[in-house]
Write a structure and sequence with these properties.
The chain contains one helix and 15 strands; from the N terminus they run αβββββββββββββββ. With 192 residues, the protein is of the alpha+beta class. Strands 1-3-12-8 form a four-stranded antiparallel beta sheet, with no helix packed on it.
């Protein structure tokens, strides 16, 4: 019985030595792997760009209207592009101020007051190059251009990237009292 106890004790002791050896070998491997690391710091500089507006149609003609009639002439102003590459998320407004009078190009004494003769209805806003359309909207429809009016607006934290507005309807109402002539005026678009 003493021999059996001694043999059993030796087996237990041998098993403990083998287990201890395995723990030491694999434990030191894990420690060794964990101790050998390398860190790299990553940097990216993103430079601020600008806020810009561009219009594809720089000459817009309503065509010919016969004098002496009450008539409407409408035309689409297409492809006004606003780009906001400032990287601030400040938002922006694309606007026009009040339009000056139509002035005859050959006789500056002949003028048509546009306060209640020229309206617009801003068209369809679309994002360009995957920019988020959230918070970017067209201005109010069917308003006279007799004061500052919004064509397109981006609220704060929105409008980063590029946006196009198309199918903006310009509507000129001719009164019977308007004199015949070849008239022009400037519509100035601003983004800020």
């Amino acid at each position: 019985m003493a021999n059996k106890t001694q043999a059993l004790t030796q087996k237990i002791f041998s098993t403990l030595i083998i287990a201890f050896t395995l723990i030491m070998v694999f434990g030191s491997l894990e420690v060794s792997r964990a101790a050998n690391t390398a860190n790299s710091e990553l940097y990216q500089n993103i430079t601020a760009g600008s806020l810009d507006i561009a219009a594809q149609n720089t000459n817009i003609s309503f065509g010919n209207i016969a004098a002496g009639l009450l008539q409407n002439a409408a035309i689409n102003m297409n492809n006004v592009l606003v780009t906001d590459y400032r990287g601030t998320g400040a938002g922006w407004s694309a606007t026009t101020g009040s339009i000056e009078n139509y002035v005859d190009v050959t006789d500056s004494n002949k003028q048509i007051t546009l306060n209640n003769a020229l309206k617009w209805s801003p068209g369809d806003v679309e994002n360009v190059n995957g920019s988020s359309i959230t918070g970017v909207t067209a201005g109010t429809d069917d308003v006279y251009l007799n004061t500052t009016r919004n064509l397109m607006v981006a609220t704060a934290s929105n409008g980063l990237g590029a946006y196009r507005i198309s199918n903006t309807v310009l509507n000129f109402t001719q009164q019977p009292s308007y004199q015949a002539g070849n008239y022009s005026a400037t519509l100035t678009l601003t983004v800020s």
